[in-house]
Every structure is written in structure tokens, then in C-alpha cells.
Amino acid sequence: MKLTYDGVKRKVFISHFREDRQEVDAFIRKFANEEKVFIPYVLGANANDNFIQSQNPDYTMTQIRGKYLQDTTVTIVLVGNCTHSRRYVDWEIKSSIRQGEYTPNGLMGIILPSKGESAHLPLRLMANWNEDNVNCYARYWVYPPSPEILGDWIEDAYQARRNRKHLIKNSQDMMGYNSKCKVCGITH
Q1: How far apart are CA 156 and CA 108, in angstroms?
Q2: Residue 48: pLDDT band by 50, 70, 90 thresholds?
Q3: In whole angstroms, what is the distance from residue 124 CA to residue 174 CA?
Q4: pLDDT score for 46
Q5: What is the pTM of this model?
Q6: CA distances (Å), 169 to each of 98, 104, 145, 147, in order?
Q7: Which of 77, 46, 49, 83 is nearest to 183 (CA)?
Q8: Any idea what the Cα angle at residue 66 is, between residues 12 and 15, rounded to 5°?
Q9: Mean pLDDT on 108-113
Q10: Cβ contacts of residue 183 below 8 Å, gap of 6+?
């Protein structure tokens, strides 16, 4: 990647599983509040699994976009042990990369520090990524070693909205329920 972070602060939606909230808050505190790399949008009440009570996928996507993603341009999925099994993470990703009325958000995943260098990806993120980070819409990274590198990653995701949108894969159905976690073996 040949980008150089120029200090532009993008509006970033943070998708995560609530049980990772301590690490999510630390990420936001360091990179958004202290280093000022991005402007964060994060759900504080996502412990409530009924925040949108509808079985209509189009309505649900419209509500997520309007109420939660708002005018963000990049979505970062912070990946912990059980993130891959959460239906709301899937819904947030689906809404983030939905094309049509809105320009899709850039999409990237970042492994939380507690996971080391690998984690199970949410299926919709996995469908938009490959190991070489080439010819795919999304990128997937180990936790950023510096604010400048994170800034480059965010800018790459922002540019993907125009340069790589033809690579978006978003046709699979939304998860109806949380799935069984591949790490802990339970459904949260």
C-alpha cells in the first residue's frame, strides 16, 4: 500500500461484539480521542439484541444506515473471539456495504490485541476479503502498530468506496439469529 496518512479524520463506524467492549473502548480512546486519527461512531447500547424489531431485511438495513451508520464513510469491524457469530455485526456489515441509495462504506477488519494474529471472521467480511488484500473490497489487519498506519488503512478503505466497489459481495441473506461461536462453542 502506497498511501500516506495526511491527517484527514474520516467518520468511522465501529462494529463489534459487546463482550469485547473494554478493548473496543481502548482502541477508540487511543486512536480517536488521543491520536485523533478518526471520528468514531459506535453503538453504546448494542447489548440489547432487539434494537430493530423487524423481520423485513430492507427496513432493517434502512434503519441501521439511518440511525447508526449515519454519515460514516468507513466501517471497522473489531474482531474478537465471538464477533464472527453475531447477527448484528453481520447486519452492520451488510448495511455498510449496501449499494444503491448510499455510497457504500469502506470496510476493514482489525484483530483485537487479545486475539493475537488470527481470528474467525464474520462471513460477510470474509466474503469481501482475501489473504493477499488484493482484488477484494475489504481489508483485514492485525492491530495497528501506529496511528499513521491506521490512518493509511482507513484512507485505503475510504478510497475503496469508489475504486473497488465493483468487488463488493453482499448478496447472501442476513443472519436471522446469532450462530454458535467457533471458539467457545456457545450461542451468545
Answers
A1: 9
A2: very low
A3: 9
A4: 41
A5: 0.91
A6: 9, 12, 29, 29
A7: 83
A8: 35
A9: 98
A10: 81, 82, 120
Local confidence band at 44 (pLDDT 50, 70, 90 cut-offs): low
Band (pLDDT 50/70/90 cuts) for residue 3 is: low
Q: In the prediction, which pLDDT does 27 show?
A: 98
For the chain, percent of residues with pLDDT exceeding 70: 91
Cell of 145: 502498530
What's the grid cell of residue 41? 461512531
3-state secondary structure 139-172: EEEECCCCHHHHHHHHHHHHHHHHHCHHHCCCCC
Which pairs count as long-range contacts for 135-141, CB under 8 Å and 24+ apart, including other chains? Answer: 135/167, 136/164, 136/167, 137/97, 137/107, 137/164, 137/165, 137/167, 137/168, 137/169, 138/107, 138/108, 138/109, 139/107, 139/108, 139/109, 140/108, 140/109, 140/110, 140/111, 141/108, 141/109, 141/110, 141/111
